[in-house]
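Two proteins were folded this term; both appear here.
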Amino acid sequence: MGDKPSAAQNLSSPFPGGRMRQRDLFAISAYWFATNFHWGALLMIIMPSQIEQIIPEYKAKALGFILGIGAWVALVLPPIAGAFSDRCASRWGRRRPYMVTGVAVNLCGLFMMWSAGNLRGIWLYLIAYLFVQFGNNLATAAYSGVIPDLVPKEQRGEASGWMAAMVQTGTIFGAFSSGYMMDAGYVAGSYALIAVTLVLFLSITVVGMKEQPLETHPPPTDWLALFKTFWIDLRKYPDFAWVWVTRALVTLGMWTVQPHIQYYLGDVIGVEDPEKQTGLLLGIALVGATVSSLIGGKVSDRIGRKRVVYLSNTIIAVVALGFPFSHSLTTVYVLGTLYGLGFGAYYSVDWALACDVLPRKEDAAKDMGIWHISMVLPQTIAPFIAGPLLAYFGQSGTEGRYTLTGYTVICSLAAFFLLLGAVLLRNVRGVR
């Protein structure tokens, strides 16, 4: 693998003047809208709702178990798929073949999840979810190399802002639309809308990304050498290590609370339609996130990434601490808006920060896959922590309901992780 051509040699910018136009940034970011529409609908609305129908007496534990097991696919697959994508010599480019194949598998998994939900089979539902995770992460692992491949360094904050805006708007529309459709009983329609969105926005990115194929074929795969590249010397790349750790802590904080929002609205706030209200709350939060993400990315190009992270993490932590003290839906909406502003600002610089500290640009997708573990590993841990804590401290004596004490415990833990992530980012020296 030592004679593999470099990305710089083979991936010269296809954009005039070496800069990307706004429509180019939109095109390469479009797939983020689709995949976050997909996850916003599934994780926030559809899965909690269907699992409650399948096994209501153990809904929190079952949801945590399925999310935790599924996250292991997202933990292991991206670095491997990313490494093969880096070496792909297809005339369609390095990223496109894996993206299209992954989405096809993803669509099959969605159909299986819908079928398993109708059959009320919890184990079939888990298997179907694993198919969804495999397909989505295959596509996303390859796609994660697109910004390092194509975007000039001086535009990475702007590109990250575009990406964050797509993440927020995709999640908004996914959660909001599925919340109303699930509340009305249109389960099949919810899954069908996810499938159509994936195909449509994948097409925009595949056509518009202007990817340059490798000019020469890499040598035959040396499997031992390939797997050795998964080890990154943290002493040589300490900034990459600290960005990895801090991103993991932020993700751990968010996923300690996020999967249980629908249950919180029903158990603590007492809303009669938690599915619909969860979609509305997420929509309100992510509108704020969309605004702050577009601003935050450009601001970080000027004043530095770390200052934006310090502020955004603090806002999210304060909001997490505020949820247990909220006893009305109006207060929850206000907190949700503040959460969105902080989350959007964080996400707008998160990707750019990772791109800035990558060890090797020629292995962008593989190294971004390793960095991606910092988002996925906490998702395998958080459900096994938050679910049991909520069940233990939130015992109410009523089947399927939890008390305010349980939600206070998990919200406080989330705030701790978020603040620790901000504090430890000070150790990153090579990026402002």
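Next, the second protein.
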Amino acid sequence: MSRAPVTKLLLVAIVAAFGLQIWGETSGTDLVALGANERTSVLAGQYWRLLTSMFLHGGFLHLALNAWGLYQLGTLFESWLGSTRMLATYFVSGIAGSVASIVWTQMPSVGASGAIFGLLGGLIAFLLKRHEALSPQGKSILSQLVMWAVINVFIGASTPRIDNAAHLGGCAAGFLIGLLLRERGSYRSVAEA
């Protein structure tokens, strides 16, 4: 985690937001009032919801799964490609996921998963672009990332109340960003032959 300070900061932010969310809910405030991504409100000009919804979660399990995914992908992304690129990819992908959600989903949505899928898509694109130069370890990492993406999209498509539009929108944005990124030295020491 010492090589991933932004990942650590984002983890603290989503956990702190969950604490505020629990406090708000005990006061009778629902997720929409707290800043959930909700189509009617966003189209009425409350664009901040595209961002605030990335820090809210639908329960402890939702938070735990997203925190685990952020820890795994954020640490890898940040150590390979840098903190600034990780942060930019996270927020651009998260907002893209929120936009996809209001376009294709009727229900309010919350969660960091659109941004996390953006990190996943970014890593996949980054490695695919360098496929020929990858070491066996790098190819294994790429295969695992693709498998993780496929499994999660399948779970999202087959489970009610999971906002697969946000996942796919975030992943697509991250993929496009990943095609543009250049590596740092720490990436070469692990992934290239």
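The longest helix spans residues 136-158. The two ends are 25 Å apart (CA to CA). These notes refer to the second protein only.
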